[in-house]
Amino acid sequence: MKKLQTVTIWLILAFILMNHITRIKYYQQFFGKVLFGYGSDYFTAYLIMADNILLFLMDLLTILLGVAALAYSDKVARDRMYSFFRYVYVMRSFLAVPIVIYSTITFAKYIFPDPVSTFITLFRDAVWITLVVFMIICKPEKRVQKVNLQDYDMVAFTTTGHRFMHYFMDLLFLLPIWMYFVQGMLSSRQNQLFQLLIFVGSFILYYFLSEAIFRQTLGKMITRSCVVSDGVELTTGRVFGRTLCRLIPFNNFSFLFGAKWHDRVSSTAVVYVDTWEQAFEEKLLVAES
Question: What is the rounded CA–CA span in Å between residue 99 and residue 179?
Fold first, then answer.
C-alpha cells in the first residue's frame, strides 16, 4: 500500500503539470488579451481571470503538499502532509464533477469536435477518476476516528476563534468553484436556475463529503479538529442532516453566541483530534494506580 501511495502521488503531480502544459495556449490568449471575446464586459473578464489565478494557486498548493509528502523525513510530518494532499486533491475532484458535467453538456461541440479530441478527453477523465480512486484507497497512517463523546469523560471542544477560522478557510476552498458559476450566470441568461442549483449543491457536497469521508473539512484539518457524535452513532445520514442544517439562515454565525444550531440539531460536536484519547488514557492510569 505504501508503494501504491508513493506512485499515486507522483502520477497526480505529473497529471496536474500535464493539464497546465496543455492549457498554455489558452493562458496566452486569455491573459495576453484579457477582454478577448468578452467585448466591453470588463467585470466578467476579470472575474474569469481571478478564477484562473485561484485555480492555478490551488494546483500549486497541491503540488507543494505532494512534494512535502514525498520529501519529509519525519514520519509524522510526512503523514500529515499526505493527509492534506489527499484531502485537497480528492475534494477538489469531487467539487469539479458538477462543473465537468455542466461544461460537457453546454460546450459539447467544442469539447468533442473530432474523434481524436474525444478520445483524448475521455482518456484524461478516465485517468483522473482512477487517480481519485487510488487516493481514496491509500489512506494515511493516522486517521480520524469515529467517536461518540458519551464514551469519554472529557474532551477539548474547538474554540470559537478556530470555528470562525474553519468557516473562512472552507469558503476560501469553495471560492474558485463559486466564481466559475457566478461568471457563468453573469455572462449568460440561459440556464441560470440550473447554475444556481449547482452553486448551492457544491456547498452541500463539500461539507457532506468532507465530514462523511474525512470527519473534517479543510479548516478543521488546519486546526486539528474533527466532527464527533454526542450520544448517538455518527452515521452518514446524521452527517447529511448536519450539512442540511447549515442552510438555516444565519446558522454560520450561531456559534458566535453559543447556539451552534447545526451541532445541536444533528447531535454532533467539533472537538480537537485525539483529546478524547488523552482523557481516556488518564482515566486508565488512575484506575491502575
Answer: 12
